[in-house]
């Protein structure tokens, strides 16, 4: 039943949200991990990590880096998910035991094949963290990754990630998204290591993730607020920006209406531009900057399409959905 609950269908990762923690260079921990040989078991890998790294933070990062670098995303399962099995149990204890067996099987399969979807990534990360003496939990929930996710009504659970405790503080980890991205146009997985999804700022992390379990929902707002928000890309997080206005990612506008935008930490208009559905630049009108907030307007033309996407320094920044009044 729990396998029913999790539909492994959104691997996310469109092409504008793919740079590695603001830099494509590996850090010192990653450089050590890159030299690791193949290990016969998760336990042997965990022992090596314990030997090479002493702090909880470094071990948690080493596990993340090893998985993001060494594993591959299972494209076949993503595109053709198997039919979900159902199980019947008389007691919760019976189900807990069965679930442990299923999870253990997934962990071993993921480690051996070096391939999985998000469930396998999250389970293996949790197991390796536990072997390294870390408290770690798998979290399931909704992910927001595509333009048509803005304002969508379809609810559900489509992704899995982790939260791990480091020196008393819980940090957020999405090793699946650190592994690469799915190129929708070419229907291929592009491996591209990204460190940004390890210990990400919760404010930004929860702009893309919404947990199923209320105990993890220290993100602001409810599910509707989450879905109605803008779609953010790497450039937004890189600039440590904020959307001051509009308050929603769904904007009501008719032909000829002026739409006002206010972005914090974007002071140079020449660094920011936006495109319509034909990838043509849209004119930015009446720009002004005050106290680190850039304010401007765009005149809506229905030929622009349903979405407006902003770019900063040639990187995806944020996208909004336009609906008629």
From TrEMBL:
Residues 110-177 form the Transglutaminase-like domain. It holds the Pfam family Transglut_core. Signal peptide: none annotated. It comes from the Bacteria. This is Transglutaminase domain-containing protein.
């Amino acid at each position: 039943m729990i396998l029913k609950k999790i539909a492994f269908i959104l691997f996310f990762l469109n092409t504008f949200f793919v740079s590695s923690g603001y830099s494509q260079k590996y850090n010192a921990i990653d450089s050590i991990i890159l030299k690791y040989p193949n290990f016969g078991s998760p336990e042997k890998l965990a022992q090596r990590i314990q030997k090479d790294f002493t702090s909880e933070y470094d071990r948690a990062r080493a596990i993340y880096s090893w998985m993001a670098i060494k594993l591959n995303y299972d494209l076949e399962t993503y595109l053709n998910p198997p039919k979900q099995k159902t199980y019947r149990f008389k007691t919760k204890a019976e189900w807990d035991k069965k679930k442990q067996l299923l999870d253990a099987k997934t962990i071993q399969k993921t480690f051996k094949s070096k391939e999985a979807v998000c469930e396998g990534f999250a389970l293996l990360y949790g197991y390796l963290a536990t072997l390294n003496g870390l408290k770690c939990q798998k979290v399931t929930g909704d992910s927001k990754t595509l333009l048509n996710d803005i304002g969508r009504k379809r609810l559900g659970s489509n992704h899995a990630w982790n939260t791990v405790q480091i020196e008393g503080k819980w940090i957020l980890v999405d090793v699946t998204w650190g592994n690469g991205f799915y190129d929708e146009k070419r229907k291929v997985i592009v491996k591209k290591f990204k460190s940004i999804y390890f210990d990400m700022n919760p404010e930004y992390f929860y702009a893309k993730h919404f947990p199923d379990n209320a105990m993890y929902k220290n993100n602001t707002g409810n599910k509707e607020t989450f879905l109605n928000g803008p779609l953010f890309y790497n450039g937004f997080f890189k600039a440590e920006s904020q959307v001051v206005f509009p308050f929603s990612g769904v904007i009501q506008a008719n032909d000829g209406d002026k739409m006002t935008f206010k972005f914090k930490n974007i002071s140079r208009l020449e660094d920011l531009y936006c495109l319509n559905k034909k990838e043509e630049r849209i004119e930015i009108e009446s720009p002004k900057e005050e106290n680190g907030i850039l304010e401007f307007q765009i005149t809506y033309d229905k030929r622009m399409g349903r979405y407006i996407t902003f770019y900063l320094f040639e990187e995806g920044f944020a996208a909004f959905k336009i609906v008629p009044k």
